[in-house]
Amino acid sequence: MDFELSGRHALVTGASSGLGLAIAQSLLAEGASVTLAARSAEKLQAAIAALPGDQRARCDMVAAEFGVSGAVEAMLAAATRQTGRVDILVANTGGPPPGLPSAIDPEEMAAQYGRMIDPVLRLTLALVPGMRARGWGRVLTVASSGVIQPIPHLPMSNALRASLVGFMKSLAGEVAADGVTVNVLAPGRIATARTAELDASAAAKTGKTVEEVARASAASIPAGRYGTPAEFGAVAAFLASAAAGYVTGSTIRIDGGAIRAI
């Protein structure tokens, strides 16, 4: 299937590794040009250097960290300097530390909002008007399966990411007739550094080894394993495609069947 992404330009945040990089790779493989944004210039350069030559030629990058003053403006400037537009926004952010709901520090919660939510809203609100004017656009927000079924020990993530789901669902209804789709990706256990970090945290709390924690987690998933970043990226590329023009306002699970609710 031709996703018709050749000539389209994407901005992908959190793109130096993990899910963000997997999405950028999938979009590049489908012919899009991509501006990769993340806080580490060194990691971005390494990620781009590892790409095939024809894909490297369609890449740009910007080192900017969500939550730091000027980061959103830097991303917008970098993303528009080559083509003058962004057709696809993929908003992917890091996650807050684990803990118990009763132990949340309200000041830390507010700080995490400034890193995880506010920049996504600002990027979206800056780019959607141009998409509407051109009659085509894609907004993809990477959340978590915790927005559907709260994940124990990740209360800040569960709460903050859910606010993005509510906003994106509202936005989807406003812009659908203008050719702009707005969807949320809800990853389950995908084999990334973030998942390894959470497994290590669980191991430290339970006295088990990381391997034991990972095996038990995989056993709870109907697919019997963690997903791969490539599998996740492929779903994102489809949602960014012309073929997915009638899919909007949805939260798409990529979780191997882990969430049992209908």
UniProtKB/TrEMBL annotation:
State if Nucleotide-binding is listed as a keyword.
no
Pfam families membership: adh_short_C2 (PF13561)
The reply on keyword Aminoacyl-tRNA synthetase is no
Q: Matching InterPro entries, A to Z?
A: NAD(P)-bd_dom_sf, SDR, SDR_fam
Which top-rank group of organisms is this from? Bacteria
The UniProt keywords, alphabetically, are: Plasmid
Q: Which family does it belong to?
A: Belongs to the short-chain dehydrogenases/reductases (SDR) family.
Put simply, this protein is called SDR family oxidoreductase
Organism expressing this protein natively: Alloyangia sp. H15
Its organism's taxonomic lineage begins at: Bacteria, Pseudomonadati, Pseudomonadota, Alphaproteobacteria, Rhodobacterales
